[in-house]
Amino acid sequence: MSDKIEVREIKPSRPRPAAKTKMGDQPVHPNNTIYVRAMKGVFQRLRRYGGWFLMALFMLTPWIPYQGRQAILLDIEAQQFNFFSVTLFPQDLILLAFVFMIAAFALFFFTTFLGRVWCGYTCPQTVWTFIYIWFEEKIEGARNKRVKLDRTAWNFEKLWRKTFKHFCWLAVALVTGITMVAYFVPAPDVVFGLVTGELSFAATFSVIFFMLATYANAGWMRTIVCTHMCPYARFQSAMFDKDTFIVGYDVDRGEARGPRKRKEDYKAVGLGDCVDCNLCVEVCPSGIDIRNGLQYECINCGACIDACDQTMDKMGYEKGLISYTTEHRLAGGTTELVRPKLIGYGLALVVMMIAFVVTANLRVNFEVDVLRDRNQMFRETNEGWIENTYTLVLVNKTQQATQFHLSVEGLPPHEWSGPQQIEVAAGDVADVPISLAVDPYELTSPMTRIEFVVTTDSSDDARRVDSRFFSRR
Ligand code: SF4
Ligand code: SF4
């Protein structure tokens, strides 16, 4: 059984925020500017391609059409959530609850197994930040140039580069804001409404809100969001154990760190494999030094692994001084992949997925509700018959128009006023007012239990809904 990683205070080898880097004395503390150095490598490729893919998926999804409408549209006003051929109504919110529970247990499972891979590779905050850094890199240049540019007094070069960078950031933020709202309001309406000024106040406000939030989070705050605002960063350590994969530095192999000549017998002078090139710090988006041990700011992005592997390659040393590893492995033991906590989260995840599938399969194609007239229990007609009034609410949950047939059981011979057959459009709700009138001599008590029976042309399903017929007897 795995133990929890004990909490210990790490004394940084370099004082922060004024840690020295090869660039001089620019701060690397997350509260200050972090000049992230671009790095090539396996994990950075995975992040870059994965990030672009996720962003494209997010931006293009609202534009996917399906049977003449938007494939995914969460129409709050109409209380309908459309997912391709499935339309969910407020009555189906249990399915949405299962989706959230599945997502939560999947997060627990993968965090226990692979650490903060969600943070490093798929979290929107990370993905957008990396895309913003990509623009920064393309417009202002590599890390060294950016530091130099920031230190230079304002001139034309600095002005146009900074202006263009912020213009690109704002453009990405605007597209993000529009896309967010396009999940709730049809995408063409959002774009057209913004251009013509006809978009509703709520939708316009939402676009501006998401735009500014994206610009501030990915452009300015970056890892401050991860370290100070994200609750997941705080409680994820509760899921970690000594067999969780983390990004770790092999202290025994790396220390004592220090510069040396490539061909030098460094071991003879008491040095380890770390050449103290500082690359692992310069590429870190969180501005930390992983050689100080596991820190809560680390998002498991693997940039320092790629950086260090590059240095190891150049020096002709074996790769993996920094690697995805576990506390047990770093301590010289072996990693236990299958362990009770992981099995527990895995089982909970499977149970939730089964519950979701079963609930989805039990979901009916239509719903019926019966509302009695609240103002009047009954009334007497000119012929002296007793009349009760109802509203039948028919919810067509399918993607096709459906013909409904209505009848009532449990009532003596009666007169039915109102439609007994009605077509309801795909995903629509119809209110059908009806009245039932009965000769009072046919009634044996002041209250008769009745049952409305609703059938459709398209399925064998029959829905029976209890109600009451009141009279004065
Ligand atoms: S320490 Fe390494 S893995 Fe952690 S955030 Fe920094 S670069 Fe990424
Ligand atoms: S990148 Fe590797 S060699 Fe360079 S300082 Fe970091 S741990 Fe040491």
UniProtKB/TrEMBL annotation:
Sample GO molecular function, one term: 4 iron, 4 sulfur cluster binding
Record domain 4Fe-4S ferredoxin-type: where: 265-293
Xref: Pfam families: Fer4_18 (PF13746), Fer4_5 (PF12801), FixG_C (PF11614)
TM spans (from-to): 49-66, 93-114, 167-185, 191-213, 342-362
Coiled coil: none
This protein's record includes keyword Membrane: yes
KW Iron-sulfur (keyword) present: yes
Keywords noted in UniProt: 4Fe-4S, Electron transport, Iron, Iron-sulfur, Membrane, Metal-binding, Transmembrane, Transmembrane helix, Transport
Gene Ontology cellular component terms for the protein in this record: plasma membrane
Protein name, UniProt field: Cytochrome c oxidase accessory protein CcoG
Lineage, opening ranks: Bacteria, Pseudomonadati, Pseudomonadota, Gammaproteobacteria, Alteromonadales
